[in-house]
Amino acid sequence: MLFSELGLGPDVLRAIEDKGYTQPTPIQEQAIPCVLQRRDVLGCAQTGTGKTASFTLPMISILASGRARARMPRSLILEPTRELAAQVSESFETYGKYHKLSMALLIGGETFTEQVKKLDRGVDVLIATPGRLIDLFERGNIMLNDIKVFVIDEADRMLDMGFIPDIERIVSKLPKSRQTLFFSATMPPEIRRLADAFLNEPVEISVAPPASPAETVTQALSLVHEMDKRRALRHLLQTEDVKNAFIFCNRKRDIAVLQKSLERHGFNVGALHGDMVQSKRTETLERFKQGEITLLVCSDVAARGIDVQGLSHVFNFDVPLTPDDYVHRIGRTGRAGKQGRAFMLATPDDTKLVGAITRLIKREIPMIAIDGLETAEFGEEDGTSRGRGRGRGGRSARSETRPPRGDREERAPREESAPREERAAREERPVREERPVREERPMREERAAREERPVREERQPRESLAAAESRRSNEPRRGGDRDRRRRRDEDDDDVAVIGFGDHMPAFMLRSARPRPSSQTEPSQEG
Ligand code: AMP
């Protein structure tokens, strides 16, 4: 099918041609005609499928006629992170270059003044993160009753980040007669419930099974001891043909340690996480995209949707704490038909997390050995390490399924949903990292400091992935079916801790002793 058959206007088609797209992707082929017919759309699609253009292109055609009034935007797109919001605004600029649509990007971490000025002039397209939008709404800078097209992007990510109450509030301010486009990479029941509430007889489009990793990504896993992880990473960086790479860590504090360590070893490396000031986040990402920085040590703020053309590698320095995040992280590479490579470093304590990933992606990840390093062994079914005394041994994998609350990337949205004055005061200031609830790897920083001595690394001939895979397949497999079954059964017992965001269930807020009624109802305003 051709773009010209989808019903888009000639100026949009010209911009698509300039961009060099020859054919619509499946989500574009299915969604664009429905959006142009002004139908609601429920799209189950991951980033990397061309999802952004599937709503921006028809929106430009729809909004081409008509004019925005001051403070009354004509369309609204909600994104979970500032980076994604900025990326969508770039798409509007690219595809809307032959139109005179006005656009405003409302994201946290930037001053209000410019954003308010733009709103005052009237905007056709408003792209926002939920917290900042609510702020401006409460200040009276914006009215939402002229919204004709409303887009919720990455709904499942919004759920993870505790944004759903904010979104419900925003939707309650929108006119009933609007067009709603709702996109999510996965459709858990909570997301389905929201979709049912927000959409009116939507066309349902699903372009890829949820959480299926791109076929274009070659994956590998290396099981090492905790103290060997940085050496293992350096070895991979030196032996792989790395053009540019994201290196994912689970904790923000580990990002700084790893970045410094890599810098000392001569790598060209930057860092990206949610506690950095927005100007620095934007600048770092831009420098990475421009090739001025080759490696980016990052948190999951970079895992979803961030589109860096031709990213050659993803390294999971830490095994992600939820299997979905693995899929999103490795999906940064192997995009737009290009080949990518994704490596993960696991320790014996990560046994359960790795098991959860392989169950989700329905395949084993080929194991590779790192030259010069002892390969560790997977832990016991109860989650304890049997890493020959060199791992973090004895720590329960169960206790590791979530990081300490204060250290999770989810701090970013909490920042956005904090009271208005507090948030305004914090503009351009990094969020102070809270003390982790649980004591976190007490020896780790110490070990890290010790390890900063440049380790003499003997370069050894590199083992290719294929060779490693074939060697592994000839080795006896660790743990038989029975072991795996036991591990799975045990996982079924594992109850994850759920963050309630601003929706704290009433029973948790109720005091054991009756209190005066004025104290029993805390504000929803986080
Ligand atoms: P998205 O899923 O929106 O993040 O898009 C992923 C990548 O695919 C982006 O780099 C887009 O520029 C690119 N892309 C989107 N539509 C097309 C298309 N029809 N042909 C080729 N590349 C595309």
TrEMBL record:
Keywords linked to the UniProt accession: ATP-binding, Helicase, Hydrolase, Nucleotide-binding
Pfam families reported in the protein's UniProt record: DEAD (PF00270), Helicase_C (PF00271)
Keyword Hydrolase attributed: yes
Biased segments, Polar residues type: 516-526
Motif (Q motif): 1-29
Domain DEAD-box RNA helicase Q per the UniProt entry, residue ranges: 1-29
Alphabetical list of SMART domains matching this protein: DEXDc (SM00487), HELICc (SM00490)
Superkingdom: Bacteria
Region (Disordered): 379-526
Keyword ATP-binding: yes
GO molecular function, one term: helicase activity
Compositional bias ranges of the Basic and acidic residues kind: 397-462, 469-483
Domain called Helicase C-terminal: residue spans: 216-381
Signal peptide: none
Domain Helicase ATP-binding: 32-205
UniProt family annotation: Belongs to the DEAD box helicase family.
Protein's name according to its UniProt entry: DEAD/DEAH box helicase
Organism annotation: Azospirillum endophyticum
